[in-house]
Amino acid sequence: MKYAIGAILGVALFAWLFSVCSPAGKNKTGHEYMPDMYHPVSYESNQYSDYHWNHWNAAEDGQTFSKAELSQPRGKVNGSVPRGYTGVYYTDASALDIVRGKNAPNAIAAPVNGEAPFTYANNEDDRLKCEKEMSFNPFPITNDGLNRAKPLYDIYCGVCHGAKGDGQGVLVTVPDAKYPAAPKNLLGDDMVGAGNGRFYFAIVYGKNVMGGYTDKLSYEERWQVIHYIRSLQAKAKNLEYSETANSLSNIEKPAKGVPSGPGRVAPAAPATPTAPAGK
Prior knowledge:
By secondary structure, the chain is mainly alpha-helical.
């Protein structure tokens, strides 16, 4: 009897050991001795699923986070600025060169990528307030900036507003297009006379069916795109908008010239320093 029990236990032990090592296939490791050695307990970005034995999502108060929350990039520490995300409000080209690491001994470039405060809420009252207060583009008009802004405009704006800014983008002009909302004509008198804050606010928050673009355009890129839109407006009116002259308005400052346009006129009081910021 003892031998029979021993034999049964031996067979059972052998069967268990065999099952531990199988089944394994092309994309399967088989049974695991220590699961955490293969399945990580860390959360991968943009992955909403995790290993079912992963219990590291419990908060101190006993509540659990959703997998979507845990898979998103962590935010910065409050009051801090990530490396390489400087936001500035300079209107002098030489000062911007220093920020970019030029014309200064032992200077380290700090790309102007937009970690600056934006104090306006996403509502109609603040939109109108932003347009009124955010008048001046903090970057001077440069041919280099306009050249860099053109492909950005074509990619993110031109598909709706058109390469000319007339609201005739491919989204509404292709055959059998059924886009329900007509994109804004940026060349209309209302948009030519609009303050820069109206454009910047729309880039940050979007407007109607248009979404925001803060995750696609850096702080400086947003302002350069606004410069490019102004250049399209000037072209439509046979005016000049370049680093040497601005005959569209007396607001935006050419890098090598002076604004002299008879159209849009700067307000009597300058905007507050906190207005021209990025989100």
